[in-house]
Amino acid sequence: MSFNSMIAAVALTVAVAPVCAQTYKTDQGHTEVRFSWSHAGVSTQHGEFTKVEGVLDLNADDVEASTLNVTIDTNSLSSGFGPLDDHLKSADFLEVETYPEITFVSTGIERTGDTTADVTGDLTIHGVTKPVTLQATLTH
Fold first, then answer.
1. pTM assigned to the model
2. End-to-end CA distance of the chain
3. Does residue 6 have a pLDDT over 50?
4. Beta bridge partners of 105
5. CA distances to 37, 39, 44, 72, 79 from 86, in Å
6. For 32-56, what is the HEC assignment?
7. pLDDT tens, 33-75?
8. In terms of C-beta density within 10 A (0-12 exposed, 13-18 middle, 19 or more buried), how is residue 49 classed?
9. Cα–Cα distance between 60 and 109 in angstroms, integer?
10. How many beta carbons lie within 10 A of that of residue 106, not counting itself?
11. I need a labelling partner for 58 at 20 to 30 A (CA). Which of 9, 24, 44, 117 fits?
């Protein structure tokens, strides 16, 4: 698995608990950041980051004016196999001692339907920032 394929494989699912009327923070017990990759075309392997913090500033009247910021602790990577975790955390991939966080900062939100939106933003992994679009479902 190359570092670029790992960037492409990161999928973000964030559950939020209300803090006040319009600001929501992630609830660690209900937040998942999972990723997967093909292992030699034979099987699909999975991993997750277990420590995530995020803030959604929601404008319920104008969803497109909302913002989302997420920080992932790279050292919290877990694949269920310690030697693989150590390799993914090494300089070959995430280099967690030098780059302890992955961040996502939204730059725009566009409604794509009654209950869907595209959340665009800057994803920074291993010191490299690239624009990404997350497809979101608006549940409440």
1. 0.80
2. 37
3. no
4. 69, 122
5. 17, 17, 19, 17, 10
6. EEEEEEEECCCEEEEEEECCEEEEE
7. 999 999 999 999 999 999 999 999 998 888 899 999 999 999 9
8. buried
9. 13
10. 17
11. 9
Q: What's the one-letter identity of residue 116? A: T
Using an 8 Å Cβ cutoff, are 30 and 15 in contact?
A: yes
Question: How far, in Å, CA of 124 to CA of 132, rounded?
Answer: 10
- CB count within 10 Å of CB 109 equals 23
Evaluated on CA atoms 131, 124, 137, 77, the torsion sign reads: positive
Helix (H, G, I), strand (E, B) or coil at 82: helix
The edge-to-edge listing of strands for the beta sheet with 77-78 is: 10-13, 32-39, 43-49, 77-78
H or E, element range at 112: none
Any alpha helices (H) in 10-132, and if so which ranges? 82-89
Cα dist from 72 to 42, 77, 83, 105, 140, whole Å: 29, 9, 21, 12, 25
Q: Tell me the one-letter amino acid at 59.
A: N
